[in-house]
Specification:
The protein is α/β, with parallel strands linked by helices and 382 residues long. It has 16 helices and 13 strands. A 7-stranded parallel β-sheet has the order 3-2-1-4-5-6-7, sandwiched between helices. It has a 6-stranded parallel β-sheet with strand order 10-9-8-11-12-13, with helices on both faces. α3 crosses α4 and α4 packs parallel to α5. The protein is globular. Keywords: Isomerase. This is UDP-N-acetylglucosamine 2-epimerase (non-hydrolyzing). It is an enzyme of class 5 (isomerase).
Length: 382
Amino acid sequence: MGKLKVITIFGTRPEAIKMAPLVRELKGRQSIENKICVTAQHRQMLDQVLELFNIVPDFDLNIMKSNQTLTGITNRVLQGLEEIFEKENPDLVLVHGDTTTTFAGALAAFYRKIRVGHVEAGLRTYDKYFPFPEEMNRKLTGAIADLHFAPTSGSRDNLLKEGVPVNKIFVTGNTVIDAMKFTVQKDYVFNNNELNSIDYNKKKVIMVTAHRRENWGKGIENICNALKKIVEENKEVEVIYLVHLNPIVKDMAYKILGCVPRVHLLDPLDTKEAHNLMDRCYMVMTDSGGLQEEAPHLGKPVLVLRSVTERPEAVKAGTVKLVGTDKDNIVKFARELILDSSKYDVMSKAINPYGDGKASGRIASAILQYFNIEKGEYEEFI
């Protein structure tokens, strides 16, 4: 055969960050013709990553609409990809993780009997409504996928329990660790001057994100009240809360924290700004999935503002702790890390189980070996 034709699909900022190093790797493989399709499920935040990594899509569905629904996103992705797949007829479609773009992209490929590779496969909570809709997006994509690129051995084990053949699973590490090789700089100067004004050596800076659907309402309210109490109790603490643009989240955050000293409410940062802030902060509090992988790579303890996680490896390693959204619980565990240096050291020095910066190369090699274009034995991430 000639060059293997691959179409890589993503539509949100987290997907783009994690697919960017893989796109770069595929571009460097002479046996692969890789085309990039973005759905723009999240337009502005996606474009920031495309610019950062100098990625120019071959196809842009530009589906984002005001107040978009999950049904609308799914329909627009399916319709947009149908025409692209008919024209391009790729050998393989690559999707990432657990977004609605991911599931719809895999489904569109399945309808045309195109092989699907699932990057970051096998993560599970086994609660279909937590996280919602990500858990089912990931499981349904896994049911369609032909190749499963699991970031850890635990993710592989989840897939094996579901009956996925062992020869279709490749343990690669997580591509986000690859991406951070390009984004984190020790001498970095922030574009946001408010971030440049903070003394990261003398202050204990807590980086916060909280926006998940399951935390809307009471959960976000509890998180904000906990942050207020943490700052009031600890004069050396400053909080940088990167507030999601969704009014449900933003209105609550500004109502409770808008006038609290040493609390900085900022719009979401671009990827490079966020990674470098993470590198300088004292600890991270988040309900995000990706930060649970990124922060341990930088030696930052993470308090996860959720009751369950599809990323249990870092919990087992000791660098991440599940604290839920109960106000008193959040304050208790934050206080421990702020005041007890021994507990902080245990978490900050735990080994990150998510990667060694070589995941993209493993994925590219696994694809070429699967299609019998390259020979050799695949070396999985341990």
